[in-house]
Amino acid sequence: MVLNSFIRYTADSLCIDEVSIDAIIRETGTPVYIYSLKRARENYRRLRSAFARLGARVHFSLKSNGSLAILRALEEAGAGFDCVSGGEITLALEAGARGKDIVFAGVGKTRAEINYAVSKGIGWFNAENALELRYINDAAANAGVEAVRVALRLNPQVAAKTHPHMATGHGAAKFGLTADVIRMVLARQAEYPRINFAGIHLHIGSQLGDNAASLSAVDKLLDLIRPWPQIRTINLGGGLPVAYRSDETIPSLDDFVEALAPRLDGYEVLLEPGRAIVADAGVLVAEVLYVKRQAGQIFYIVDASMAEMIRPALYDAHHEIVPLNKTEGDLVNAQVAGPVCESADVLARDRRLPLLRAGDKVALLTAGAYGMAMASNYNARPRPAEVVVSESGDRWRVSRRREAVEDLCRLEL
Ligand code: LLP
Question: pTM, whole model, 2 decimals?
Fold first, then answer.
């Protein structure tokens, strides 16, 4: 099996960069998320150079992974941030970002969040509601801010090729504004004297399975803004896919940029990728607690669950699972399931895996995006620790401690 390039077996023991995962978990225990800072930065740089001919500025979509260690590494590498809440803005600032390097998106920003963002000198609001514009305008007036830059978010009414939960640009989606509403807003710009309507925003979905829907959305967007030459900035959102299966091919990034280049000539371009930067930089490591054989099935019950990694339960998502210690024996069909009391708590179904025993460890790959970020305390499970492997590739540290049971009671009054 081809693993991610930074994760491979050395002397039959799974390593992340130069560090043996076994050595890490002997100290941290399981379940634990482990990230390669080197890989995250490499991915950031790869995207930046792929889009270099568009002069695109990359804002890491913080919702995919809010680990401060990762945010700091990306900030140092030059990334801006795409935030969808006051909390995410605080994390981005904490990581060293300046307000102007942050774009603030979201379908339901509160007034408090809008005021906060304006006070921090946010670079762009991606706005999607006329009342929201009123709030932004008022916040700017109250704070004595001359002009706030807004990119209206277009819902281009295209069907993205992805899981229905991740498609955001179709008619039935709550996201964005339709072209006619945007035209109406732009015709009434004078009502928002503190807003500079200098941009337009688009995000049709995540883990996009082809470039066609994105290009058709861009064409609709260009048609829409033609009468408004003051709109010089186009934010293309995120959605760039990654390969979750070892044999999966994803749409070519170079072809995408090639097709975009003539269309976007003369515009400033922003991007908001999350997954493409962190997904394959992270693994979730778990221990096999029990092996259950019954009704013709083999279940590996592990100590990670849908509480730590919800993607398989929520999206039927596929994550490769490999043992920490390479074995040459026969493969069997097995389910890898967690301890949570839900039938959906299965991390892998009908998977070819080696024969494992209680105490063996496994790694769930491509877990760096929307893994820990979507973890919960369901079934009163303390959230796992996070470990980062340094950019040099040979050192590691716990960047966030494992939650303790006491943490679960801490907020009760
Ligand atoms: N920009 C906007 C406006 C977004 O809504 C999103 C993701 C992104 C950027 C970043 O998208 P990315 O480059 O990571 O695809 N929880 C799901 C994914 C939900 C994505 C939500 N929005 C998952 O686990 O696959």
Answer: 0.97
In angstroms, rounded to a whole number, what is the distance separating the alpha carbons of residues 102 and 191? 25
| Gap from CA of 240 to ligand 1 centroid (Å) | 9
Mean pLDDT of the chain: 95
Q: Is residue 115 part of a domain?
A: yes
- For ligand 1, atom 5, which residue shows the shortest CA distance? 203
Residue 84 falls inside a structural domain: no
Q: Residue 64 Cα, ligand 1 centroid: separation in angstroms?
A: 7
Relative to the CA of 274, which ligand 1 atom is closest?
Answer: 14
Catalytic residue check, 341: yes
Q: Kindly state whether residue 77 falls inside one of the protein's structural domains.
A: no
Say yes or no: 244 and 129 in one domain. Answer: yes
| Alpha-carbon gap, residue 16 to 14, rounded angstroms | 7
In testing the pocket of ligand 1, which one of 59, 61, 165, 166 has its CB within 8 Å of the most ligand atoms? 61
Count of domains observed in the chain: 2
For ligand 1, atom 22, the nearest C-alpha belongs to 206
Rounded CA-CA distance 165/278 in Å is 20
The model's pLDDT over 48-96, given as tens digits with 9 standing for 90+, comes to 999 999 999 999 999 999 999 999 999 999 999 999 999 999 999 999 9
Domain, as residue range, for 178 = 105-273
Domain co-membership, 113 together with 258: yes
pLDDT, tens digit, 9 for 90 and up, residues 115-159: 999 999 999 999 999 999 999 999 999 999 999 999 999 999 888
Q: For residue 3, what pLDDT is reported?
A: 65
Longest dimension (CA), the chain: 72
Q: Using an 8 Å Cβ cutoff, are 102 and 81 in contact?
A: yes
Residue 232: how many other CB atoms lie within 10 Å: 13
Ligand 1: residues within 6 Å at CB?
A: 61, 64, 82, 105, 166, 203, 206-207, 237-240, 272-276, 311, 315, 369-370
Q: Which of 211, 243, 273 is the last residue of a domain?
A: 273
pLDDT at 235 over 90: yes
Which atom of ligand 1 is nearest to 369's Cα?
24
**What CATH number corresponds to the domain at position 14?**
2.40.37.10
pLDDT score of 1: 52
Are 131 and 257 in a shared domain?
yes
Cα 398-399-403 angle, rounded to 5 deg: 80
